[in-house]
Specification:
The protein is mainly beta. It has helices spanning 2-15, 188-191, 274-277; strands at 19-21, 32-34, 45-46, 70-73, 83-88, 91-94, 107-114, 121-123, 154-156, 162-166, 171-183, 195-210, 219-228, 236-245, 251-268, 297-299, 327-334.
């Protein structure tokens, strides 16, 4: 009888036992407690976990796993990255912390700039519609993706330059620029006769180069074509250009917006004289060689200069420099490797 009683006491004490390491007193609510100032606890390390539902590395993989089972995955060649995982809802769940959070989610960064409007770009150089006294057009170059600036007569839009960074090769980059252009304020456009219409066409392009490289390294990544066909001074024409690209090389880049003058001419109601039929710009020896008759294109702001009115929109009163500003947005979305 005494033997049975002692055995019962021993079993009872084991049932309610607590484990303590380097501890003389253990909290009553704790089954395991340890203390150290220069050591840590090493969780079982698994070389490879093939997937979030993989159990093949366990001692008894066919057994039902309890929620909360903790492992450390070393990564290896598995499809999931290294780190601490716990089992719940029939899969391994990654334990995130602030240090590794960026390596577990996709990162999106927005770079943006808007011109102040104080120093606009003035597009003065258009392709001649007729050579001097001739009957042939001056061809506009074909514009293709990855063209350099030297392919055509691009004019930079000041204050649209912006630097951005690419950290991952798996990226999606959305390029968007928008704004307004405006014809010159000279009254010649409104009053000249017998001309029935005026046509002005232009391109807006977004170029990118490696940061610090010369402008000759700029390459065309987005382009839009625009036109107006009304014979009116101070005419505002809005534009928007947008595209999605990938840059395969990581590093720092610079983007900038440029404008390209295409055709700029006035048509006669009486087109018998072919030399008068077209109205080329920036050409001093044509029928209309007086630069005061030119209508240049302002983009990226409103010029307040008092010079040749055909060269700027400073005398236009139907808009302001903020309305005439140009904005460039670069949205970089990157997929970070899961390791």
């Amino acid at each position: 009888m005494n033997i049975k009683f002692l055995l019962f006491i021993g079993v009872s004490s084991l049932t309610f036992a607590q484990i303590g390491i380097n501890k003389t007193t253990i909290n009553a609510n704790s089954v395991f407690e340890t203390s150290a100032t220069n050591q840590g606890i090493l969780i079982p390390r698994i070389p490879v976990v093939k997937s979030l539902t993989d159990k093949t590395f366990l001692n008894l993989p066919t057994e039902t796993l309890p929620d909360g089972l903790l492992i450390y995955c070393e990564g290896g060649n598995g499809s999931i990255g290294s780190g601490y995982y716990f089992w719940q809802n029939n899969q391994w769940n990654y334990i995130l912390d602030l240090k590794n959070l960026q390596n577990r989610i996709d990162i999106t960064r927005l770079y943006t700039t808007t011109t102040t409007g104080n120093t606009p770009g003035i597009v003065k150089d258009f392709y001649k519609n007729l050579s001097k006294g001739g009957n042939s057009f001056e061809n506009i170059p074909q514009l293709d993706y990855n063209n350099s600036l030297s392919v055509a007569r691009w004019t930079a839009i000041p204050e649209t330059e912006i630097d951005f960074q690419i950290a991952q090769t798996d990226n999606t980059i959305t390029l968007t620029t928008y704004g307004n252009t405006q014809t010159g304020s000279n009254g010649y456009i409104n009053t000249v006769t017998p001309y029935s219409s005026r046509t002005l066409t232009f391109n807006i392009g977004i170029f990118i180069k490696a940061k610090g490289a010369n402008d000759s390294a700029y390459r065309l990544y987005a382009i839009g074509s625009f036109a107006n066909s009304t014979r009116r001074a101070c005419l505002v024409t809005p534009f928007t250009v947008s595209t999605v690209i990938n840059l395969s090389q990581t590093g720092n880049y610079t983007a900038k917006v440029f404008a390209l003058g295409r055709r700029n001419f006035i048509t006669r109601a009486d087109a018998n004289n072919r030399a008068d039929y077209y109205y080329p710009l920036n050409e001093s020896n044509t029928t209309y060689g007086n630069t005061g008759n030119y209508t240049y294109l302002t983009v990226g702001g409103k010029s307040s200069g008092s010079g040749n009115q055909g060269e700027n929109n400073g005398s236009c009163t139907n808009t302001d420099k903020l309305t005439m500003g140009t904005t460039l947005n670069i949205l970089v979305s990157e997929v970070t490797p899961k390791n």
